[in-house]
Amino acid sequence: MKKTGLLLAIAISAMLMAAAISDVNSKESKKIPSVKLKDLRGRTVSSSSFSNDGKPIILNFWATWCKPCLLELNNIGEVYEDWVEETGVKLIAISIDDSRNSKRVAPLVSGRDWDYEVYLDENSDFRRAMNVTNPPHTFLLDGEGNIVYEHNGYAPGDENKLYEKVKKLVNK
């Protein structure tokens, strides 16, 4: 009986300790790192300059050769104007195409009439700093620039789940 009581006390202590650690971790905010990127005109921009007047930002890592990436950005493109109007969210698309393929980005963006800010990460510096392994990889930042959600991959309908998360942020 004493062993059971001792084990129970140890288990309860471990659970309380885990809860305390979890609570501390949830209060820590994770910001995006400062990395140099290029805009579609070849000008250097720092990722630390990304802002949206206190409203959410969606960061989407994609590539011209990635079919799920193009499908996701096209599907968001169909409703993006409504998203902006309702929540003020901004989507920033980060192309991870290397320097050989990055020349395809501007014509593709123009041809698809995407109304997003698009930047080039030709050396994959930002990709590595954000621990992005495979595109598409999407991050949601709150109005203060904290990463509050991330998702890897794409299946039709994922954009709706993302928008629900955006609405929750705006309605807090």
Q: Could you describe the 3D structure shown?
A:
With 172 residues, the chain is α/β, with parallel strands linked by helices. The chain has two domains: 1-30; 32-170, Glutaredoxin, CATH 3.40.30. Helix content is 42%, strand content 20%. It is built from five helices and seven strands; from the N terminus they run αβββαβαβαββα. It has helices at 2-27, 67-87, 105-112, 125-129, 158-170; strands at 36-39, 44-46, 57-62, 90-95, 117-120, 137-141, 147-152. The protein has a seven-stranded mixed β-sheet. Helix 2 (67-87) packs parallel to helix 5. The chain is globular.
Terminal Cα separation, in Å?
Answer: 49 Å
Q: Give the CATH topology of the largest domain.
A: Glutaredoxin
CATH architecture annotation name of the largest domain: 3-Layer(aba) Sandwich
Q: Provide the CATH top-level class of the largest domain.
A: Alpha Beta
Number of helices: 5
Structural class: alpha/beta
Q: Could you state the order of secondary-structure elements as H and E?
A: HEEEHEHEHEEH
Overall mean pLDDT stands at 86
Largest sheet: 7 strands, mixed
**Count of separate structural domains:** 2
> How many strand units?
7
**Percentage of residues in strands:** 15-25%
How big is the Rg? 20 Å
Low-confidence stretches: 6-27
- What is the CATH homologous superfamily assignment of the largest domain? Glutaredoxin
| Residue share in helix | 40-55%
Spatially, the strands of the biggest sheet line up as 2-1-5-4-3-6-7
Shape: globular
